[in-house]
Structures
1.
Amino acid sequence: MKKSILFFVAMLSVTAAKAASFMPPDTLVVNKPNRVTVITTDSMQTIHIEGRDGNPQYNYRNTLQLVDSNYVSTSGIDNDFSFSIGPLHNKKCKETYPIRQISMHFYAGFNGAPGMPNSVDISSFRSWELWWVIAQYDYLTRHHGFSAGFGVDWRNYRTRDDVQFVLDGDEHLGLTGYDDGMRPKFSRIKVFSLTFPVQYVYRAGKFGFSLGPVINLNTHASVLSKWKEEGRTVKESHKGVHVNPVTVDLMATLHAPFGNYYFKYSPSHLVKDGWGLRFHTLSFGVFL
């Protein structure tokens, strides 16, 4: 009798192994689902699986429709990754944590230049920053998280005083006045940078903030002055301003129901040592 039982158990094991090896290729196996819902009607059956082992945002839905003793199957699977542009985020991501997503953001603000000589008044509300964070990876829990991204940044620092930015014969950035008969319109420094923001994020309900550095790879800088002379507009520009190739901004953001705001300040000087004017940079504004 014992030998018969052992033989029977052995046969069952072999049969189960063979059945597993011949499992149809469209078979779906979900380990440790959080919730399974099966809805059956006279002509339709829907299976909905929410969550699985290691992925609480997994979402699978399969609908079987009976048609003349056959069935038509429609199914879909959602994972825990999403993409968002500014405030246009995937609202499903709010339901379960952690959230992992790729986002895109647009910043628009105004610039200042602390440390600039007193003879120059940088007009913050005429000096603009446009910053596009092309791709940012966000990892968020209910309250804490971090983000890291890549973007491009355009900044200018503009004055309408009676002085203009110039490069001398040795390419040093300096200041000079306008000749008699010239009516200044503006003079500005423009900087283009590749940016890499890294932020710690904290959220509490509809409010939140972030803190962290922004690494700037300053790839281009130029100066441009424009004035009126004898009834015509005259422009003078110079390329090759010797800015530091790498500068770091310290950034803080505020997230609130009434808007998103940012502030950046660089303890680094923008222009290289020995190449002219020495000043820091700051910017503030709004973002999506």
2.
Amino acid sequence: MEYLSYLALFYQKISRYDECHLVYEELIKIYEEKVRDSEDSIFYLESIAELYMKINKEDNALKTYKRILVIDKYNDAEDKIKDIQSGNKIRIAYIFELSHRKYIRHDQIEMI
């Protein structure tokens, strides 16, 4: 997955957004395969939702954020749902922040 993240970043940097979107879609497929209906899947679901936002598929992002709330009703996904529905911009993670987020949650280490 890491090489796909680098590839997406490369395409983004050289303004080849169509190719970048294809890579994001491939990452979504990979993350979807890892999703189970448990709290362990929150990282993947958040990543999927943010990738959908990056490729302007807000409806799919909304469905994914709602799926997160079914698993974890205390997640901040509710705020993101409200922002998307009201047309407010939401902060979308930089592609590599997505992977760092997993390590912070599971290993309890700080990202410097």
